[in-house]
UniProtKB/TrEMBL annotation:
<dbReference type="InterPro" id="IPR005659">
    <property type="entry name" value="Chemorcpt_Glu_NH3ase_CheD"/>
</dbReference>
<comment type="similarity">
    <text>Belongs to the CheD family.</text>
</comment>
<dbReference type="InterPro" id="IPR011324">
    <property type="entry name" value="Cytotoxic_necrot_fac-like_cat"/>
</dbReference>
<dbReference type="GO" id="GO:0006935">
    <property type="term" value="P:chemotaxis"/>
</dbReference>
<comment type="function">
    <text>Probably deamidates glutamine residues to glutamate on methyl-accepting chemotaxis receptors (MCPs), playing an important role in chemotaxis.</text>
</comment>
<dbReference type="Pfam" id="PF03975">
    <property type="entry name" value="CheD"/>
</dbReference>
<dbReference type="InterPro" id="IPR038592">
    <property type="entry name" value="CheD-like_sf"/>
</dbReference>
<protein>
    <recommendedName>
        <fullName>Probable chemoreceptor glutamine deamidase CheD</fullName>
        <ecNumber>3.5.1.44</ecNumber>
    </recommendedName>
</protein>
<keyword id="KW-0145">Chemotaxis</keyword>
<dbReference type="GO" id="GO:0050568">
    <property type="term" value="F:protein-glutamine glutaminase activity"/>
</dbReference>
<keyword id="KW-0378">Hydrolase</keyword>
Length: 165
């Protein structure tokens, strides 16, 4: 059996990618959220590593603005636009959502940025009629994920709490 060689990519905060080329995409999440989108029909995969729920300025979400991938709301919309340009329909997509940890103790009366990121990701996917097939959100631990763009598979490792031995 011949296996197809995959390229490797480490996704940094604020980055996203859409690919039909088999790629293993790795990223490490704390309060950030990663959303993967996969179309089984044509084996297109997309992933973002977003840092904040939404931008304050709609101009920041324009196609030309380099910071668009930094925001959950903008990054998901941009991935959907790129997939649509390749003929992928929203009803074909399988979404998986990871991260959104509230890793630092703070004011218990305010929701942390991790919770806000997770909530925004689920809200945008619902609004855009994209089915979420898997989620691993919240908590106090970071996560490392590996996304296979050509199969939609995501491998997850929960990281130790800071201070753990």
């Amino acid at each position: 059996m011949i296996q197809q060689v995959r390229s490797l990519l480490f996704l940094k905060p604020g980055q996203m990618m859409v690919s039909s080329v088999p790629t293993l995409v790795t990223t490490v999440l704390g309060s950030c959220v990663a959303v993967t989108l996969f179309c089984p029909r044509n084996q297109f995969g997309a992933i973002c590593h977003a840092q904040l729920p939404s931008c304050d300025n709609p101009v920041d979400c324009s196609h030309e603005h380099p910071a668009r991938g930094k925001y959950v709301e903008c990054a998901i919309r941009m991935m959907l636009e790129r997939l649509n340009a390749h003929g992928v329909k929203r009803h074909e997509l399988q979404a998986k959502v990871f991260g959104g940890s509230d890793m630092f103790e703070g004011n218990l009366k305010r929701r942390g940025v991790g919770s806000q990121n997770a909530e925004m990701a689920l809200k945008v996917l619902e609004r855009e009629a994209v089915r979420v097939v898997c989620q691993d959100l919240g908590g106090e631990r970071g996560r490392k994920i590996i996304f296979h763009t050509d199969t939609g598979e995501v491998l997850l490792k929960r990281l130790g709490k800071s201070g753990d031995s």
